[in-house]
Design brief:
Blueprint (H helix, E strand, L loop, with lengths): L7 E5 L6 H12 L2 E4 H9 L3 H8 L1 H14 L6 E4 L8 H10 E7 L2 H8 L14 H18 L2 E4 L5 H15 L1
Parallel strand pairs: 1-3, 1-4, 2-3, 4-5
The chain binds shikimate-3-phosphate.
Shikimate-3-phosphate binds next to loops.
Length: 175
């Protein structure tokens, strides 16, 4: 089967919005390559995201994200699962748009809490696993998330299959 798209799909959204789950599903169902930004950054640095934040600080991590986005412009038909903070930088949004369609996945704070409560790999949520905190950070990010998005898909109560079908439908319409 040939490449589905001549662009990349960039999945953005809050921590726990389902980016990695959706990326895995697209990989299985549509044979697309997947780039997990967090995973690549952690592998290249030889340490977890939490350790990168602790040792070098958030700004250092954010610069690595920007560099990786630029690197990915030479690829196509790849699903890029972005860390939740990626769209906060204007520069990143510009870089994403050069070779990609940006798909925003959303979920209610309660859903995010449910999905992230047993995970300890997200430094921004450690000690903050409650609905008011999540809702507050989400609200601070909303405008930039929405401005970056080409399409928006709500994930609450939907299966990965339903979410992916919705993404594919909307992307085809856009194409
Ligand atoms: C972050 C989200 C995380 C990771 C880091 C910071 C954020 O990725 O990049 O902990 O600022 O929202 P996920 O969205 O994949 O959890």
């Amino acid at each position: 089967m040939g490449a589905l798209f001549d662009f990349n799909i960039l999945l953005i959204g809050f921590m726990g919005a389902g980016k990695s789950t959706v990326a895995d599903y697209l990989k299985e169902s549509y044979s697309m390559d997947v780039v997990e930004m967090d995973q690549i950054i952690a592998r290249r640095q030889g340490m977890s995201i939490s350790d990168i934040f602790e040792k070098y600080g958030e700004e250092f991590f954010r610069n690595l994200e920007t560099e990786l986005l630029i690197e990915m412009q030479s690829r196509s038909n790849v699903v890029i699962s972005c860390g939740g903070g990626v769209p906060m930088r204007e520069r990143n949004v510009k870089e994403m748009k050069k070779n990609g369609r940006v798909v925003l996945l959303t979920a209610e704070p309660e859903t995010i809490l449910e999905r992230t409560k047993n995970d300890h790999g997200r430094p921004l949520l450690e000690g903050n696993k409650n609905v008011p905190y999540i809702a507050g950070l989400m609200e601070k990010r909303r405008e930039k998330y929405e401005a970056a998005a080409d399409i928006i898909v709500k994930t609450d109560g939907k299966s990965p299959k339903e979410i992916c079908e919705e993404i594919m439908e909307k992307l085809k319409v856009q194409k």
